[in-house]
Amino acid sequence: MGPIPVFVISLERTPERLATMARQLDALRVPFMWIKAIDGRQLSEPELRRIMPRPNNLLLRYPLTAGQIASTASHRLSIERISESGADFACVMEDDGQLDSTFPDFLDRDWLASLPPFDILKLASDWAGRRDDLAVPIASRSARQVCVPLHPSYSARCYVLSRKGAGNALRRLRVIDDTTDFMIFRRPMTSMRFLDVRPIVVGLTGAETTQRNSGRDAPAPWWRPMLSWAPHRLVLMDRKVRRYLAFARTLGAGGFRRLEVVPLEVRRSGAATSQAARSLPAA
Fold first, then answer.
1. pLDDT at position 195
2. What is the CATH number of the domain that holds 62?
3. Range of the domain at 36
4. DSSP H or E segment with residue 209
5. What H or E segment, with its residue span, contains residue 105?
6. Exposure string for 151-186, b = 16+ CB within 10 A, e = fewer
7. Tens digits of per-residue pLDDT, 255-266?
8. Is 197:112 a contact under the CB 8 Å cutoff?
9. Is the pLDDT confidence value at 280 over 50?
């Protein structure tokens, strides 16, 4: 059956990032298609509001930046392309991934079809705490374990979608109200089934983010964090409940008894895992 389609999201104004990914993929003999990322810098205020109708939603601790909104919309665009293609499986990547030599092994259509039914298989993850290491191993590949995670991890850097998963992800992203990390993984649809690979297959190149994650691109009055505190705490609880339900959807209630520590072993360029974890938002 051969390898599955690979889509790389990259901004037109950062050709060096796409070139870095192209060199890695070419060296591994993995063909790919470029998805021209939506550029938050080029979006007007009305365009941003069409993408995210409720930018000042108090469920968010802070408003999203234009780059974060555009990034989520870019992932939605990529998944739309996958859904339209009718592919059984496809891979979505951002342009800051450091590929392990085993990366092509996880793009084999026959092998993916042999796994238990899944919506998303994550090949990249960002570690946020010890609970992210809890998982149930169900298969192995290239000296790595394929697991059902208790908590689908941060990072939309690289993931494989099944055909059904693409449809479910599009339904989840129909109305954008948060980043891709939260909408798909940390506050998931409870009907979705998640798998991941441990240790991860796609690390970070160390390239700076293009999303402008600071508040400068989405200014807010000083009182907003106080006003949003209580609604946001409710969202944190909702996120955890959703992740537990998604886990139970995959393995049933008995899966909680099978949990064990399977480290993600996130390796980063230029920063220790613990330092990077401290920069992540609350789970």
1. 98
2. 3.90.550
3. 6-278
4. none
5. none
6. bbbbbbbbbbbbeebbebbeebbeebbbbbbbbbbb
7. 999 999 999 886
8. no
9. no
196 - beta bridge partners? 122, 147
Give how many domains the chain has, as a whole number.
1
CA-to-CA distance for 29 and 152, rounded, in angstroms? Answer: 29
Contact between 249 and 192 under an 8 Å Cβ cutoff? The reply is: yes
Q: What is the pLDDT of residues 231-253, one digit of tens each?
A: 999 999 999 999 999 999 999 99
Instruction: For residue 201, tell me if it sits in a domain.
Output: yes
Q: Which two tokens stand for residue 96?
A: 């800051």
- At 216, is the pLDDT very low, low, confident or very high (cuts 50, 70, 90)? low
Question: Residue 209 half-sphere exposure, CB side, CA atoms within 13 Å?
Answer: 15
Whole-structure pTM value: 0.90
Q: Which of 66, 18, 282 is nearest to 154 (CA)?
A: 282
Whether 17 is in a domain gets the answer yes
Q: Has residue 283 been placed in a domain?
A: no
User: Would residue 89 count as lying in a domain?
Assistant: yes
- Picking from 95, 92, 67, 72, the residue whose alpha carbon sits closest to that of residue 81 is 92
